[in-house]
Amino acid sequence: MNFLFTLSTLHLVESSFVHVSLVSCRKTISNRGENGITLDLIHRDSPRSPFYNPSNIQSNNLRNAYHRSFSRASFFKKNSISTPDTIESDLSPIPGEYLMKISIGTPPVEVLAIADTGSDLTWTQCKPCKSCFQQSMPIFDSTKSSTYTTVGCNAEECTSLGGPSCVRGNICEYEVSYGDQSHTIGDLAFDKFTFPSTSGKDVSIPHVAFGCGHDNGGTFTNHTSGIIGLGGGEVSIINQLDKEINGKFSYCLIPIPLESSNSNVTSRINFGTSAIVSGPDVVSTPLIKKEPSTFYYLNLEGVSIGNKTLEFKSSKTSSSSTGIGGEEGNIIIDSGTTLTFLPSDFYFNLESELSRSIKAPKKDDPSGTFGLCYESENGTIDAPTIVAHFTNADIELWPSSTFAQVEQGLVCLTIVPADQIAIFGNLAQTNFLIGYDLVANKVSFKPTDCTKY
Length: 453
What we know:
single chain; 4-stranded antiparallel β-sheet; 29 strands; disordered N terminus
């Protein structure tokens, strides 16, 4: 689902945290020591997720995740062609692929929210509710938190644009509208956020800017209460804590079959010094800054199938899109999209080369979702090595991430065609420790068994 900030609201939110929140949390982070923060990143289909359905077979989970990918990609594409007087960003009405547990306030109230690298604003439902969707966990009550404060209308953060969004006295208000008529409206506020670090010691950070939603509705489900924004925009958690975590976060994603069948393993996300990716087998590629700043853009130069390299270029070019066709920053790396999307004309060249290289018997996908599928009794096929050539970084993709069993006896390519958008999805990212450094403007990849990370 794409959502819409008015330009004045977006700037209001950005300025409010820049001036206030970073100063407050520096002491807390520095007192933690030098290990940073590591949290569980819970896949929505894993036994640790409230969405887990033990009766679902793995192929059903994959098929459902793939359908969510197509919806998400369409919203990303709309995002990429936003008009100058509006800023659009992506948020799916169906739950994202990964969830995070945090707590807000003093005393802390636990929140289970969608962890989204394609969104900036962190928000949760709050009492009193003018209108709230049902959620299974307690709704946050700001009146019971001794550390909760709202942003005032006369504050520089609220008046700097000359058009403050104030409707109830001296309180700034945010509004996010969604393409499917879903929405969240509430107060722009600060409160203490507590992160349940895997070290066993909770990490508390005061004065984090977030949206306290009093009017929320649409297609949201009762299993989550909001969004944790991990995007590249100014209001995201990553940029709010920029000085404290030095612009660094990383994650290690477990392959979906393991995540879905084993409650003892989970993906992880790291912040600060814990997020540094190092070692002799690390490769890094530039992180390209462009609009919309929410997304993380890389430059893909080509893809190799065995010994043949296909140059990444496309005639499906839009001057407002991700830059396919030669411009820097031609692909989005996104943890919330399962599939990898490539421009249709490039994709069909890649599919043709794969078809020539794979000797297994072809089989049509009954749903018509996937273009290249093969019969397989054991869920695998003998496929050539696929390497994604990013600028200064060659990433050899794991066979299990490029071909997956979507139903019994059917294995399909998890790369699919799209127009005006290219996304490096989370299946292609599994079993890599992937580090984002927003100070050095680079993304690093290290082959890693994420089940043991």
